[in-house]
Design brief:
Blueprint (H helix, E strand, L loop, with lengths): L14 E4 L2 E5 L5 E5 L2 H19 L3 H11 L6 H18 L9 H12 L3 H20 L25 H8 L4 H13 L3 H6 L9 E5 L6 E5 L2 H11 L21 H18 L10 H9 L11 H8 L17 H5 L1
Antiparallel strand pairs: 1-2, 2-3, 4-5
Organism: Acidithiobacillus ferrivorans SS3
Pfam families: Phage_integrase
GO molecular function: DNA binding
Length: 335
């Protein structure tokens, strides 16, 4: 039960007189000034209670619904898909809670549980939840973002480098379409989604003009014999219906992410069964191969050199060992 007042018994609950003014004290202990005049303070008190009631009536489910309706559609298609999957996990945990009731300890509990099976995904889901709260602040639903006080899991960048021999081992087991997609990935460093999005309109006299889906950055890949050969092979793919995409399905449509992933998985497994490949790799690893093999640091479209070096430069650094024969004490060391 709340503690009985010993003073200011004429004032409503959580309203106090201090230093010649009236204040409202919320459940966190924060003092909010209502005014120096009692009548004005009572009026402001009523407005504040109404605002609190309105905020308390909003659940995380409603907040997620609004975010999904107003924010997610403005993101890149791949990001939209990822966010919708992440929202499913967040909804399961937080749907019935009120935004103002969510504290860092609740988010840490979620992270600990998700981290048992997927630390990286837990980080991405926390990042999305943080963005949801940022918009909640903008919409006047909450005043603070509890995610800002929650530290994510430390992530180790993937270091799988695909050798030339491994590339050709999988390439030779793939269909003509898979082979062309692989070559384009190595030549350009484009993401899978951008390769599947390539259309005939992207082919210009100057080269291949691509608007990347993730960053919205426009890249012009100048013509080289390898690039022109891959594009010519794509144009020559037999199709019953010729669609707008370079790598289209038999019916002329764009390959879906899951459809292409299934073909890729079968191709890699075929190389494994054949014995020409001993360790599998993802199609996205080819982007890192392109970044590692290229001398052009602008190839992948990253403005931040640190990101390029940390994530995509996967070749071992070549170092020169010490020449002991040049050292003054080399003779005694080798005798």
């Amino acid at each position: 039960m709340p503690k009985k007042r010993t003073t200011d018994k004429d004032l409503p609950e959580r309203m106090y007189r201090k230093h010649g003014a009236f204040y409202f004290v919320d459940r966190s202990g924060k003092w909010v000034r209502l005014g120096a005049n009692k009548a004005d303070a009572i009026m402001n008190y009523g407005k504040m209670l109404q605002d609190i009631k309105t905020v308390r009536s909003v659940t995380m489910q409603q907040l997620f619904d609004r975010y999904e309706r107003e924010v997610i559609p403005n993101k890149a298609p791949r990001t939209q898909q990822d966010n919708l999957e992440q929202l499913k996990k967040l909804r399961f945990a937080f749907n019935e809670m009120h935004p103002a009731d969510i504290k860092p300890l609740h988010i840490y509990a979620y992270m600990d549980e998700r981290g048992k099976v997927a630390k990286v995904r837990a980080n991405r889901e926390k990042a999305l939840l943080s963005n949801v709260f940022s918009f909640a602040i903008r919409w006047g639903t909450v005043e603070v973002n509890p995610c800002q006080q929650v530290k994510g899991f430390t992530e180790k960048p993937r270091d799988r480098y695909v050798t030339d021999a491994e590339f050709w081992a999988v390439h030779d087991c793939g269909s003509k379409l898979i082979q062309i997609a692989m070559r384009l990935a190595w030549i350009t460093g484009l993401r899978q989604g951008d390769i599947l999005d390539l259309t005939y309109q992207d082919i210009t006299d100057q080269g291949l003009m691509v608007l990347t889906a993730k960053t919205g950055k426009r890249l012009l890949f100048e013509w080289t014999p390898d690039l022109r050969g891959a594009i010519d092979d794509a144009r020559g793919l037999p199709r019953k219906v010729r669609g707008m995409h370079l790598l289209c399905t038999e019916s002329g449509g764009r390959y879906t992410r899951t459809g292409f992933a299934s073909m890729w998985k079968r191709t890699v497994q075929k190389a494994m069964d054949k014995g020409t490949l001993t360790e599998s790799f993802t199609f996205h690893d080819l982007r890192a191969k392109a970044g590692s093999d290229s001398q052009d640091d602008h190839l992948l479209g990253h403005a931040d050199q640190r990101m390029l070096n940390r994530v995509y430069k996967r070749k071992p650094a070549h170092v020169t060992p010490v020449h002991l024969s040049n050292m003054p004490s080399a003779k005694s060391a080798t005798d």
